[in-house]
Design a protein that fits this description.
By secondary structure, this protein is α+β, with helices and mostly antiparallel strands. The protein has one domain. The chain contains 2 helices and 7 strands; from the N terminus they run H-E-E-E-E-E-E-E-H. The strands form 2 sheets. Strands 1-2-3-4 form a 4-stranded antiparallel beta sheet, covered by helices on one side. A 3-stranded antiparallel beta sheet has the order 5-6-7.
Length: 167
Amino acid sequence: MGLGNIIIGAVLMAAFVVPFVLSGRNSKKRKNKMLLSLRAIANQHNSSVSIHEFCGDFVIGMDELKNFVFFHKKSEGKELTNFIDLSEIKNCRAHILRRDAVKGADKMIDKLDLSFTPHDKTKKVIDLEFYNTDVSSVLIGELQVVEKWAKLVTDRLTQQNKLNRAS
């Protein structure tokens, strides 16, 4: 009876543990592929990724020496990559589109973008889409990531402007 209980216990434990191990392994592989894509974008611009962050179906990174931002997103079989030269950018902000969910309740977030406004007014604003309710129904940290990167890039732009004024 003791050996039978041990075998049953081992089988049950394996049945519960294996899905978590496989999920973790798949997540790591997916992140590695996304980081490779981000680094490929950087390499195309003779650059490197010095800092990066994953969230959901995207990865964002920056070359702190050359002041470039890189973005890679893969969702529903579509891949989107973007490169932004911060020397051409006037400002950066988190753009949060909200709507009323239920009367009297907090507003729901419909869309989150990191918006880059160029110095050249003839060029369009560049929006990096972090979240869209049409694609995903649950926020999993995108709000915090978009706010963090808006601050990070804004600080970088402020530094860049101080250096330009000093020279």
